[in-house]
Predict the structure.
Amino acid sequence: MRWAFEVEFAPFRDDVALNNKEAHVPDPNPAAMAFMLSRRSRPAKSLQRPIPSNAELLPILTAAGRTPDHGKLEPWRFIVLQSAAMDRLAALARERGEALGYDGEKTEKGAAQFVTGELAVVVVEAQKPSEKVPAIEQIYSAGAACLALLNAALASGWGANWLSGWPSHDRNFVETGLGLSAQERVAGIIHIGTEKAAPPERPRPDLDAITTWVDA
Ligand SMILES: Cc1cc2nc3c(=O)[nH]c(=O)nc-3n(C[C@H](O)[C@H](O)[C@H](O)COP(=O)(O)O)c2cc1C
């Protein structure tokens, strides 16, 4: 299948290949751009098996590891949650919901992603001490790692969804359930699987409203 964008970019490709060395003109990657212009998440609850094998997940994790990070601190790490871990975490979320006095609905909402999930990668924000790189930049980088992982999974043909939920912010849950240290936080939980049905597109931002062009 050829995307409309590919057709649009195609005439430039040969010129670029010929001229690139001399003129340093842009060298477009139409397939990558077509992906970026059309990418969208798939709701986690609509994801089912098949899921990526460990071997199929490796390039996705490798792509996420190419996330920009000021000072090469690598302020993130990954935890791959497989089926048995999902069951354990679903039970822990229910236990924590009850201990925290949440009503049944809130408790179940927090547990749901682990009840239905088949495979997910937790992106852990793991800040490193640095005099040069402010904490906020390390937090941004962890968020960027979440998007890189999400996009790599989508680009590999899987459905994927970035979730959080109250358990991901509950210290007891993340420390006992996921093994995080006291300084670490969950940046995102990226569920990966096969979508049952394509969701409708959601509204996208009005570029004029969010973009300011400054020329002086
Ligand atoms: C930090 C973060 C946390 C999120 N947590 C949830 C969540 O817990 N539940 C949910 O339904 N959506 C959550 N979302 C939104 C979903 O990822 C949503 O599907 C996504 O924003 C759709 O974007 P896309 O179609 O552009 O990929 C979260 C998004 C972000 C960035």
